[in-house]
Specification:
Elements lengths: L2 H12 L2 E7 L4 E2 L2 E2 L6 E6 L2 H13 L4 E7 H9 L8 E4 L7 E4 H4 L18 H15 L7 H15 L3 E7 L8 E2 L5 E6 L2 H10 L5 E7 L13 E4 L6 E4 L4
Parallel strand pairs: 4-6, 10-12
Antiparallel strand pairs: 1-2, 1-4, 1-5, 3-4, 6-7, 8-10, 8-11, 9-10, 12-13
Helix pairs in contact: 5-6
């Protein structure tokens, strides 16, 4: 770890507030890929004015973003939750004074699988989640995405990752029923989650019903589809990518 990274991490630990640039397309931190290092990174600031200046630049490029002010108690959980998103780098104060790019593993240490309770496994799909973030950011940032070829490549990569994964489903505690979500066009999709954080977001929004998580492999999802379901909505409180499937 370089001295500049050490100082940035110390300042981060003591900061009363930080400002994160979030995507309006995904309702999550805005993620970009560095053109030189290929790091998948988020943008974080200590000063609001610096964050506003960078957000204005992105909006000028037709990238819809907003600022999220985060108090100190929430900073550590926020950083830990970047791991299942596939983010590996935090860029601090980009475009404002000394810009520091710190690897996520230099800032926080993620819990090890060996520390999980007996019989529990970690369900995460960082490659899929990251690709879905890039796909959604590009798809929704303007009425007609300019680079259709790039969008198609992201979609194909996303499907490739999806077919290899294990996911969380939400089952009603009272009868094990799997909920359906109605999209704006009336289509119905079952919610599906890449990790426990996304599942918890869903439960927090739907407080009137009690849900328990279940684990399912991608190849088995078609077996649990309701007759009127078009497929699954991946992380509906985040990227909300609808994947159409046909019931066997």
């Amino acid at each position: 770890m370089t001295e500049s990274v050490k100082q940035a991490v110390l300042k981060l630990q003591k900061a009363e507030f930080v400002y994160v640039i979030a995507s309006l397309c995904t309702r999550m931190p805005y993620v970009e890929c560095d053109s030189e290092t290929y790091d998948d990174q988020i943008l974080l600031y200590f000063e609001e004015e610096d964050a506003k200046r960078e957000a204005k630049k992105l909006i000028g490029k037709k990238i819809p973003v907003k600022l999220v002010k985060m108090g100190n108690p929430a900073i550590l959980p926020f950083l830990v939750n970047l791991f299942p998103m596939g983010v590996n780098c935090v860029v601090i104060n980009c475009g404002a004074g000394e810009c520091v790019a710190a690897q996520l593993s230099e800032i926080v240490r993620r819990p090890q699988d060996t520390n999980l309770p007996e019989g529990k496994i970690r369900v995460e799909n960082p490659e899929l989640h990251l690709t879905a973030i890039y796909f959604t950011q590009e798809l929704k940032r303007m009425p007609e995405p300019q680079d259709r070829e790039e969008l198609q490549e992201l979609h194909e990569e996303m499907i490739s990752h999806f077919q290899k994964g294990k996911y969380l489903i939400a089952a009603k505690e009272e009868d094990n029923g799997i909920p359906l979500l109605r999209q704006t066009n009336g289509d119905l999709f079952h919610p599906l989650f890449t990790d426990v954080q996304e599942f918890q977001k869903f439960c927090a929004i739907n407080k009137n019903e009690k849900f328990k998580p279940g684990i399912i492999e991608a190849k088995n999802i078609v077996k649990i589809l309701a007759p009127n379901a078009k497929g699954v909505a991946l992380n509906p409180m985040g990227v909300n990518v609808q994947l159409q499937m046909k019931r066997k």
